[in-house]
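User: Okay, second chain of the day. Same drill as before: sequence in, C-alpha cells out.
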Amino acid sequence: MVTRPAYGGPARLDAPSRPTADTLGRVAHPSTQTDDRARRRSSGALPDLAEPTEPDGSAELRHRVERELERYLAARRGEAAAIGPVFGEAVDALARFVLGGGKRIRPTFAWWGWRGAGGDPAAPEADAVLRALSALELIQASALIHDDLIDASATRRGRPTVHVEFATRHADADWSGPPARFGAAAAILLGDLALTWADDLYRDSGLPSATLDRAAEAWRGMRTEVLGGQFLDVHTQATGDESAAAALRIDRYKTAAYTVERPLHLGALLAGADDTLVTAYRRFGADIGVAFQLRDDLLGVYGDPEVTGKPAGDDIREGKRTLLLALALEKAGPARAEITAALGASELAPETVERLRTLFLELGAVQAVEQRIAALTGAALDALTTADIDEPAATTLQELAVSATRRHR
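Assistant: Same drill. C-alpha cells below.
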C-alpha cells in the first residue's frame, strides 16, 4: 500500500467547498487582500503557487512520446500526399500542431498507470506500450482542433489555431468562397483525421490483439466521453445554464475522463490490473482530472498569455460556463448584470476584463475554486491508498497530481 500523503481529507465531486489544510502550500486567498492580489493577478501571475517540480524522468518520457508521434506522422504523410499534394500539405499542418507543444499529460498518466500495475519498462513489450499510449496525443489533437473551432479561438500555444491558419491561406491566395468557411472545413477534416489515426496508431502499436482487446473498455469509453462532454459544453452555453452542477459535469466528461481517468484505466488494463487497482485509479483520475480543469479555468482568466499561449480573459469572451463563473454569479447580487453582459462579448475591452478579474476575487469565487481544487486533490490522493501500486509509480502519481493542479500553463 502506498503511504497516505499529508493532505486535505476526502471529498467527493459534488461536496461543498470547505477550507482545506494544504501542506503543499496552496492556501485559499482571503478576500480581505483582494485589491493587492487583483493587481498581482492582472499582471499575469497566480500568487502563492510555486511552479511544481516535475517527477524524475518526465522530460525524457515526453521526448519519447514525441519521437513516436513524429515517426508515425512522417510515415503517414506519404500516404496522404499520394491522395493529393494539397492533402499532404494539410497533414504537415496537422503534424506541426501535434508536435508544436503540449504537456503530454495523457500518455504520461497512462504510462505510470501501466507501471503501477506491474508494467516493466525493461520488458520486450514496453516500446509497443509507449507507442499505443502515444495515440492519446492524437485524440487530444482532435479535441483541441475542434474545440478551437467551436469556441472561435484565434490562438493556441501562441500560434494561430488550425481553422485560422487555413482561413488565412484561403484569403492570401484569393480563392473563391468565404475564407472562414474553408478554414472551418479544414479544421473539421484534420480533427477527424487525427482521431482516425489515433485508432490506427493504437491498433498498429505492436501489442498483441488480446492485450489491446483487454483494454478496449477504456479506449472506447474515453472517446465517447470526450465527445459527450464537448456536446454538454456547447449545449450549456446555448441554453445559458449557469449552475455549478452543469459546469462540474462538463469538467468530468470533457476533461477529467480523457485527461487522467481513462488514460490511467487504459494503462492499468494493458498491464492486466485487477478491479481494485482499476477502481482506485479511476477515483484518483476523476478527481485530479476535474481539479486540472479548474486550474485551467483560473488560468483562462488570470494566466499570463506568454505562458499559457492564449489571451487573458479568453474564457470570458467565449462565454464559458465554468465553475468560477457559476460561483461568481451565485454571489454576485447587483453585479450580476455586469458579469452576464460581458459573457460572450468578443470585443471585450481590457479594462472590462480587469474589472471582472477583480470582481471574481471580491466575490470569493477564486477562493472557492482554489478550495475545491485542494479538496479534490486530497480525495484523489486518498484513493491511491486503497490499492497496491508498484513503485516508483505510486510516488510519481502523487507528484503528477501536484504538478497537474498547481501548474502555470
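Residues 275-302 form the longest helix (28 residues).

User: Thanks, on to the next one.
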